[in-house]
Write a structure and sequence with these properties.
The chain is α+β, with helices and mostly antiparallel strands and 201 residues long. It has helices at 23-36, 83-96, 169-172; strands spanning 5-7, 13-17, 43-46, 49-52, 56-61, 69-71, 74-76, 102-108, 115-118, 131-137, 140-146, 152-157, 161-166, 173-177, 187-193. The strands form four sheets. Strands 1-2-13-10-15-8-5 form a seven-stranded antiparallel sheet. It has a four-stranded antiparallel sheet with strand order 9-14-11-12.
Length: 201
C-alpha cells in the first residue's frame, strides 16, 4: 500500500493515497462493480431545470428512513451492501478511523460524463462531513476551488486511489470532475459518507 500524503490547502483537511488498492484488486473490483451495481441515470434539478445527470449512479449501505439521501432534487433509497462494497469499506474504515454508513457509486462512462461544482454539505452529513472517495478505472482530474479566496487545486485520481476529505473542507471548498474530450475508458468512483440523524423540521 502506498503511504498517504496530506494535501496542504487552507481551511481543508485532505489526505490522498495513490494506490490504496493493488492493481490486481483494482482490476477485479472495477470489473465486478461494473457488472453488479444497479446503475441508474437520475434526473436532477440544475439552475431551476430538470435534466438527466451526466453519469450513472447508485446508492448503497445502511437502510431505513434515516439513510435516504437527497440532493439536486433527487431522492436516493439505499440498497443493501454488496460483498465488494463491504470489502472496500473495511479497508477505508480502518485507514480513516471512520464507520462509513453509505456510499454513492458513480459511473463516468467516458469523458462526456462529469459532475459540476458542488460541496457535499447536506445537513444529514453532519457538521463537518467526512467523504471517502475511492476510484477505479480511467484516471480523471479532480478539481477544487475555494469559495471565497479564488484558490484552485487539481489532482489526478488514479486506478485504486483513495481521497479522504474531512474537517472544514466542505464548508470552504467546492469540487468537480470536469468533462474532457478524448477519454474513452469508464471510471467508477465511490464516495463513502457518514449519515447522521437530522433533528427537527
Amino acid at each position: 500500500m502506498t503511504p498517504g500524503q496530506t494535501i496542504l490547502l487552507p481551511e481543508a483537511e485532505l489526505h490522498y493515497y495513490e494506490a490504496l488498492f493493488s492493481k490486481k484488486e483494482s482490476d477485479r473490483l472495477f470489473d465486478s462493480l461494473l457488472k453488479h451495481i444497479d446503475w441508474q441515470q437520475g434526473e436532477g434539478t440544475f439552475f431551476g431545470k430538470k435534466a438527466l445527470i451526466p453519469r450513472l449512479q447508485a446508492w448503497y449501505g445502511e437502510t431505513g428512513e434515516g439513510k435516504i439521501y437527497k440532493y439536486s432534487g433527487m431522492t436516493l433509497i439505499p440498497l443493501d451492501w454488496t460483498p465488494d462494497l463491504l470489502f472496500i469499506k473495511s479497508r477505508i474504515d480502518e485507514l480513516a478511523g471512520v464507520h462509513f454508513t453509505n456510499v454513492l457509486v458513480n459511473l463516468y462512462r467516458d469523458g462526456r460524463d462529469g459532475v459540476g461544482w458542488h460541496s457535499d454539505d447536506e445537513s444529514i452529513l453532519g457538521k463537518n462531513p467526512i467523504i471517502g472517495s475511492v476510484s477505479f478505472g480511467a484516471t480523471r482530474v479532480f478539481q477544487l476551488r475555494h469559495k471565497t479566496r479564488g484558490i484552485r487545486f487539481e489532482l489526478e485520481l488514479t486506478h485504486g486511489s483513495f481521497l479522504l476529505m474531512q474537517g472544514p473542507t466542505q464548508h470552504y471548498w467546492q469540487h468537480r470532475i470536469p468533462k474532457k474530450a478524448g477519454i474513452t475508458r469508464p471510471r467508477i468512483n465511490l464516495t463513502f459518507r457518514v449519515l447522521h440523524e437530522v433533528k427537527g423540521g
